[in-house]
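Q: How would the structure tokens look for this protein?
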Amino acid sequence: MIEMISSLVEGILLAIPSSADKKINKNFRLLRKEVWYRKLLYRHGTLIQMNNSLRHFIGQYDIESIINDSEKLIIFQADLKKVLVDENL
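A: Here is the predicted structure in token form.
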């Protein structure tokens, strides 16, 4: 009985997203508003967002500032495509 309760509590704690996961999910929401990213999702599928390397890559950036700066956006798009190629996605 105690084991069942402890595994239930553990499952609940693991279901709560960390601050890093919240930032990554926010970045993905911002990217989904961009036409070029939606085309990328259409081409590669939405499951690419579950890739750990891609999630780590997206979590490193401040997507709001990148979207508002065209030079940063071009560099970000090139780096994102490189990650996709490296991961064979």
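The longest helix spans residues 70-86.

The chain has six helices and no strands.

Upvote if useful.
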